[in-house]
Specification:
It is a single-pass membrane protein. Keywords: ATP synthesis, ATP-binding, CF(0), Hydrogen ion transport, Hydrolase, Ion transport, Membrane, Mitochondrion, Nucleotide-binding, Translocase, Transmembrane, Transmembrane helix, Transport. It catalyses: ATP + H2O + 4 H(+)(in) = ADP + phosphate + 5 H(+)(out). InterPro entries: YMF19-like, YMF19-like_N. There is one protein chain. The protein is rod-shaped. It is built from 2 helices and no strands. It has helices at residues 9-103, 106-132. With 133 residues, the protein is an all-alpha fold. It has one domain (7-132).
Length: 133
């Protein structure tokens, strides 16, 4: 069997040692430093991204708090404006209705009051007649 031939043991061991030493130094000097550099770059990128994320979250929270403050302020301002418009319009409606009742509807109001007075008189008279019966 050629595998067990004692003459070729030395050359096989020699080339085995040469191959593995070459492979070992290749991995030690070229492959591992490259892999370590890649891992360091990745780690640094992840750290930078994490700081960017925290900065963006802080900025987002400040923007949201500013937005909430502006929103509350605008709601308060709109409420004040709305209440002012309502009170002004109510005052205008009351003044207009008084003015219209004093000028344009004076005759109609007098006729209405006279009619109610007549109806009330008839009601009283009817009740007196009813109580007599």
């Amino acid at each position: 069997m050629p595998q067990l031939d004692k003459v070729t043991f030395f050359s096989q061991y020699f080339w085995l040692v040469i191959f593995f030493l070459t492979f070992y130094f290749f991995v030690l000097k070229i492959a591992l430093p490259t892999i370590v550099t890649i891992f360091k770059v990745r780690k640094r990128k992840i750290q930078l991204m994490a700081t960017e994320v925290t900065n963006l979250k802080k900025e987002e929270s400040s923007i949201l708090s500013n937005y909430d403050a502006v929103l509350v302020d605008s709601f308060n301002t709109s409420r004040e404006v709305f209440n002012s418009v309502i009170s002004t319009s109510n005052a205008w409606i009351q003044d207009s209705s008084r003015q219209i009742n004093k000028t344009d509807l004076l005759d109609v109001n007098e006729k209405y009051l006279n009619t109610i007075n007549d109806i009330n008189k008839e009601y009283i008279a009817f009740n007196k007649i009813k109580s007599l019966l």
